[in-house]
User: Fold 3-phosphoglycerate dehydrogenase from Falsiroseomonas bella.
Amino acid sequence: MEVMTRANLVYFENFTNPVAERMLRAADHIALQRLRFADDRAALDAAMAAAHGYHALPRVEIVEPWFCDAALLKRAPALLAACSTGAGFDVIDVDACTAAGVIVCHQSGTNKEAVAEHALGMMLALSKKFAQADKALRRGAAPDRFALTGRDIRGKILGIVGLGQIGTRLAELCNGLFGMTVLACDPYLTAEQIAARGARKVALDELLKRSDFVSVHTPRNAETMNMFGAAQFARMKPTAWFIQTARGGIHDEAALADALAAGRIAGAGLDVFLKEPPPADHPLLAFENVIVSPHNAGITEEALHDMAAGAAEQWIAIFRGQVPPRLVNPEAWPRYAARFREAFGFAPNEFPQ
Assistant:
């Protein structure tokens, strides 16, 4: 392969904030190319075939055939790295990338404040019955205030499933603001690590049985798909609420609807669905004790800026040969390093042991 002096980085439509384009165009070792889904397919295929980096849009915005899967990798023989827009990277087939010597990165932590605050907002809205009160007033009848009696969250038990950056920030907020007891289920962290993040390590079964709120903050992958089904909802308290701001598919939507209809849980706050946006007749939208948002928990002005800036910084580091800070598949590094050297004429940094 001919030695390249600049890395070709492609992306569709827009970054989450113009700061990314400004930073990347100022980097003299990167040739940035904006693609549009409406562009000529031959031109798009040519750009992808020459790309060393691909910045993938989230699942809500990306369209076929531009998911970073095995089929795309065959059309992109020069690709060295693929990055997701946010913390989730389910639009990228990590196993296929690893097999091809392509590293995968995400932007975890760049929108942690936005998502943690959104989850906390859903907890407050559900416990105070904001949705039911709002709808009652809009219907025009004089509501029975005592029928809308809510509950305080101070001193309650919060169960966090997945104690990454978002879960850790939520634990910090709930510990500090409301004196809540925080339980956490995360098989990849020790009890000591979880304690340092403000929670107590428990198994999922104990978390479900004890928590007044169950908030999900895991990636969507083979391990977590349908992680919450009928059995899990049956273990929750009938007075507990389920909060999901991670990814659609982690909970079984039909099982959740059944649990709500049977009164097995008190309600739910959902920012994510298996199909987004959900159809207007989706069963979960019929419940007054369910509040929903259109997968915008991580979309605030501050988060969009930080996601874009973090992505640009990471791309700049990648093509300078540095180990990126949010690498998903370190096992790809040896083959990636060989391919990087072939493309650019110098080896990237060694992966730290």
The chain has a mean pLDDT of 96.
